[in-house]
Amino acid sequence: MIPIKHLLHINNSIRDVFIALSNKEKMKEWYTTGVEGVFEKDEIITFEFVNLATFKFKIIFLVENQSIHLECVESEWDNVGHIIKYDLDENDGKTRVRYTYEGFSEMNDSYSNMNYSSGKYLESLRQFCQTGIGEAYGSPNYRS
Question: What tens digit of pLDDT does each residue of 44-89 get?
Fold first, then answer.
């Protein structure tokens, strides 16, 4: 498997970044306006990208203020079984986010698209945590 990895620093507390990653109302501000579910281990979270796709992820690992890992369990695309990981720690007064997306067997167009999209949404997360304004899919701030 060939993972996608991103590393970024956010000038905000681990607690605030974790809340942005694990609260559906906060995710609607930086990821997509279509988020449903409860962020607890073994629960299913639905991410809807209107007129594009809907994905269901199961929370497979959750440690407050440290990690959240999700596995795709239902998708219109070929990514069932893929895993997204957000791992947090403090580094030089900022929150370091280690993002990993696992599931690709080759660096093809799907891999490239997900790599770009992951980076775009991680920057939206950073902007949301630092300024209160993100670029969630479906929001007035979204850059298509």
Answer: 999 999 999 999 999 999 999 999 999 999 999 999 999 999 999 9
115 to 10, 12, 36, 106: CA distances (angstroms): 19, 24, 24, 12
Radius of gyration of the chain (CA): 14
Cα 74 from Cα 8, distance rounded (Å): 28
* Alpha carbons 3 and 25: distance in angstroms, whole number: 28
Q: Going by C-beta distance under 8 Å and a sequence separation of 6 or more, which residues neighbour residue 93?
A: 11
For the domain made up of 2-131, the CATH class stated in words is alpha beta
User: Could you give the CA distance from residue 30 to residue 55 in angstroms, rounded to a whole number?
Assistant: 17
- The answer to whether residue 100 scores a pLDDT higher than 80 is yes
Q: Where are the domains of the chain?
A: 2-131
The reply to whether the predicted model has a pTM over 0.85 is yes
- For residue 144, pLDDT over 80 is answered with no
Residue among 105, 68, 109 at smallest CA distance from 85: 68
Cα 98 → chain centroid: 11
Query: Coil, strand or helix: which one is 18?
Result: helix
